[in-house]
Amino acid sequence: MKTIAIIDDDIHIGNLLEEVLQKAGYQVIRAYSGTEALYMLSHHQPDLILLDLMLPGLCGEGILPRVEGIPVIVVSAKDDVQDKVKLLLGGAVDYVTKPFSTEELLARISVNLRKLSASTKAEVLHVNDLAMDSASHEVRVKDMPVHLTRTEYAILKLLMANPDQVMTKTAMLDRISSDTPDCTDSSLRQHMSNLRKKLREAGGKEYIEAVWGIGFRLES
Predict the structure, then answer these.
(1) pLDDT tens digits, one per residue of 16-54
(2) Closest CA relative to residue 74, chosen from 48, 109, 102, 50
(3) Measuring CA to CA, how many Å separate 140 from each of 136, 148, 198?
(4) What sign has the CA pseudo-torsion 162, 163, 166, 172?
(5) Longest alpha-carbon distance in the chain
């Protein structure tokens, strides 16, 4: 099931969008301010974002440059052509003006998700009992889905791409920095602890070995 993030402080419009999207078979997550949106996106990886511009705190124009790898459709009452051009050149994949037709919006969402699916080469990594689908960002342990945060996913992806290789903390931070810029040396330990716990609980054994004084290794 695809996940759509709604970033809009208008509760009425947000509720309408959520109802329409859920009826269309999408999962929905929401944020009501720019700051809340950044926090949400640091913990979840939606398939597409519906972004309002006039938000409390950090505005939509400030959020857009911070979103990487996720298509963003701007949904705004601003109808100036120059605003639309600027945002489309700035990274948005589409622009829908309020008020909008829900049928048209669903069609635009479907088209952009289809484009993303076509441009993304599906790659499934397999190590031991672990499977990771880079297209859907789905992780399974013994065919059981495991829900990971954005940082946990980036760490596991790096380890699965380099099985049996000891990765130092410095190397890990450097390699995952583009996906998780908020991860620091002090927070890496907690992220790793949470990841190891989730995998252990799902598979009944330890998958990631801590190599004392050096780093971590995923055993194949």
Answers:
(1) 999 999 999 999 999 999 999 999 988 888 999 999 999
(2) 50
(3) 12, 10, 11
(4) positive
(5) 58
What is the reported pTM?
A: 0.56
Residue whose pair of structure tokens reads 């947000």 in the numeric block: 14
CA 6/CA 8 separation, integer angstroms: 6
Surface-to-core class of residue 128, CB atoms within 10 Å of its CB (0-12 exposed, 13-18 middle, 19+ buried): middle
Q: Dig out the tokens for 100 from the structure.
A: 């909008």
R_g (Cα) of the chain, nearest Å: 19
Q: Which long-range contacts (CB under 8 A, 24 or more apart) does 194-197 make?
A: 194/149, 194/152, 195/148, 195/152, 195/155, 195/156
- Residue 53 has phi, psi (to 5 degrees) of -95, -40
- State both tokens at 116: 């993303």
Give the integer Cα–Cα distance in Å for 152 and 87: 31
Domains of the chain: 3-119 (3.40.50.2300), 124-218 (1.10.10.10)
Six-digit token string for 51: 């972004």
* Gap between the Cα atoms of 91 and 180, Å rounded: 19
Return the residue matching tokens 């013994």.
142
CA distance 18 to 20: 6
Say whether 176 sits in a helix, a strand or coil: helix
Give pLDDT < 70 ranges for the chain: 117-122, 178-179, 181-182
